[in-house]
Specification:
0% strand; 138 residues; mainly alpha
């Protein structure tokens, strides 16, 4: 039950982020509540919430420091990913951010712009990192 719910959440977040550069609050709230409930059933609600909070803190700092660079939807998405993945969230985030960084640099080089002038929706890259981690852990 956990895997399909997470994958559906990631898919919807990625599609909406690509289309409108927003991640719906209703989606993040529903996924977070479901993630906490499922973690509680498994007896790991405390650690799930802890990983969700810890994973989202650096993203929250980045969003507050430079709001034009990252939205709060990304912060909430990272928190949800942490709820579901637990300690593996760090690997998923590293993979997703590395892929986003590489893609951004390649696009910037292709357009002959500085990388700081290249904006990408983050949800698809975070999704890719999660799917990679899930692929290795299944």
């Amino acid at each position: 039950m956990v895997l399909p719910l997470l994958l559906i959440t990631l898919l919807v977040a990625s599609v909406t982020d690509l289309r409108s550069r927003e991640i719906p609050n209703w989606l993040m709230a529903a996924a977070a509540l479901a993630g906490i409930a499922l973690a509680a059933v498994e007896g790991r609600a405390g650690s799930a919430v802890l990983f969700g909070l810890l994973a989202s803190l650096p993203f929250l700092a980045a969003a507050l420091i430079r709001p034009e660079g990252m939205g709060m939807g990304d912060v909430k998405l990272v928190a949800v990913i942490g709820l579901y993945l637990g300690p593996a969230v760090w690997i998923a985030l590293a993979a997703g951010l590395a892929l986003a960084g590489l893609t951004g640099v390649l696009i910037a080089l292709g357009r002959r712009l500085p990388p700081s002038k290249t904006a990408l929706p983050l949800a698809p890259f975070l999704t890719a990192g999660c799917v990679a981690v899930l692929g290795f852990t299944l």
